[in-house]
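Standup notes
- DV: blocked on the single-chain target, sequence here:
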Amino acid sequence: MRRALVFSSALSLILLSAPALAWWDGGHMQIAAVAYSKLTPEAKAKADALIKMNPDYQTWVAGVPDDKKAQYAFVHAAVWADDIKDPAHGYTNDDDTPTGQNVGYADKNMHKYWHFKDVRFSTDTTTFPNPDPINAVSQMKLFIAALPAASGATDDVRSYDMVWLLHLVGDIHQPLHATERFSAINTDGDRGGNEVNVMPATGEAIDLHAYWDRMFGGYVSAPGAIFDANDKAGLSKVQVDREKIKILDPDVWTQESFVLGKTFAYAEPVLSEGTVSVLPRSYETDARNVARSQAALAAARLAAVLNAAFKWARS
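- DV (later): unblocked, structure below
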């Protein structure tokens, strides 16, 4: 028992100190795996060609059989936007000077603020400022517009944009990447639940944002994510509303996530802002169902965006 308690405490410290990474690797890679399976042959060929331009491509395919390289690289590329937050990659943290530029791989900034667009709300009379206009939505619109060959963007820019989109489409479908609560307790905002502590059935204290992020697991390999996505209870088996798949407007995606965030992420007991909110089974069941539904929808929409962008493209 003592060993279990020590492990739980250590895990809590790791989770509470970790940066916000929507869905973590497991979720982003599974979304990409499902999206890749839905690409048309034409879109798949163009996506494969563009991903080869990423500076980490050779690492992603090292030791991978030739017939798996394209799929594994696409799946792994979905976490590149988080990978570059590691200082070892040589990118600069530019949080204090946000930019909405689109210059391709010459851009050596981390752009952490591109990962979310927090629609703000208050549970009392606490006022809040307008969010920064440079965010996940502003960048997704920019990247989607640049993807078609007719945009005139270079392949270097289009590769960079596509790899970011593999990540951001997943990000914005995580409800806490589109929602931020202001209150007398958090007058500067709770940073999408990062300032809120909860305790799930596993027994450890964890911030609300990380609780939602980890729904699909942490570090995983590309083949592991593909296996999980296609398992009998995997994302590929989740039914998605066909009409929703047709909605390719990032503003609409964000509003949908915001509504889900207020309804489910900030449901009781989280809404009452206790010191540590102990999550009941009903909350955790709803959270898992929402997460699975949103991740599956993100995969379908990601595929739809790429299929549309590359419809008339030729390598």
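- Follow-up: DSSP finds 13 helices and five strands in the chain.
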